[in-house]
UniProtKB/TrEMBL annotation:
A biological process from GO: methylation
Protein's UniProt name: DNA (cytosine-5-)-methyltransferase
InterPro entries, alphabetized: C5_MeTfrase (IPR001525), SAM-dependent_MTases_sf (IPR029063)
Highest taxon above the source species: Eukaryota
This protein's UniProt keywords: Methyltransferase, Transferase
Keyword Transferase attached: yes
Gene Ontology molecular-function annotations: methyltransferase activity
Amino acid sequence: AGVTYMLPTLSSYTLDEMLEARSPGQLMFAQKTMEELAEIIRNPTTKLQEWDQCISHNQMCRRLHGQKLTQGILQVLIAGSPCTDYSKWGKVLQSAGPTTAFFLILMKSVLQSLPDVFVHENVTTFPMDHIVSFLGELYDITFSQIDPADDCGFPIHRKRVYLVAHRRAVVMRRCKDIGFPEYVRQVQIKSTHKLQVFLSAMTAGITTVTGSKMKRLLRYRELFSNHNVFDLNQSPDARPRKNAADGSLQTLTTNVTSLWSEDAERYFFGLGTDTASALGTEMVVTTGVSNTAHCRMAGNSMHAAAVGRAIAYLLFFLTFR
């Protein structure tokens, strides 16, 4: 109580100086406006190298994803800044600055490589408007909150916010000559506040399930009657799922493919597979080894691989709203 939390910002260090530092902790942080930080990020004379010496693995690790292989492939970048400065615990500790460097590197990498789709995952207190200030002129941006107390089948224990940014004109142009499922063109989305609204776009017309998936659906309803979204690819009896504190589902596996929505009474089949094969999509999921500036920029790679992948594919539905 009574703690005043100050937004972590960089001092007068340039981006080059920041990247040359062996650790963000070696930098002196002071207050600086987001407008000044944006100038550093948007400076066209400052470039990130595709590969950099990684302080976590003591080897060269990839910072930027590669160029598009073919004109028909959409490139999707999934990442997330470390949340230390924006988490509840970070506020209690009055943390100011340790993760800002990684956030700036992430923003610079997006602006430099311009992926067709950028998906960002973080805590609910992360100021998503910062990302909008950097990318808003180049991307259409929307975000949604995922709550494990309501949405089952996602590898999270606490609420998280997912931001989806896409270059609308580029995505539509690349999709133009590809045989895309017809139901995508009928999507209408009015709001993007909750995950359920994202899922409501994926109405492929399948309203019933059979066999093992029906058995799992009935079991989910028995065990988690207060939840809304179930991943029917996972068995609720595989291992203990409930969080002792609030009764929410524990982490499932990292392959979210078959979702059932109680509200929409819809079964969303092949969340990623069908769309990927129709569009020709190259997924670039940042992990702790291959695609981060210092192998910590992506946050929890399991979040990116499972939830980020699912939300990224919803971009294709947002495109045709």
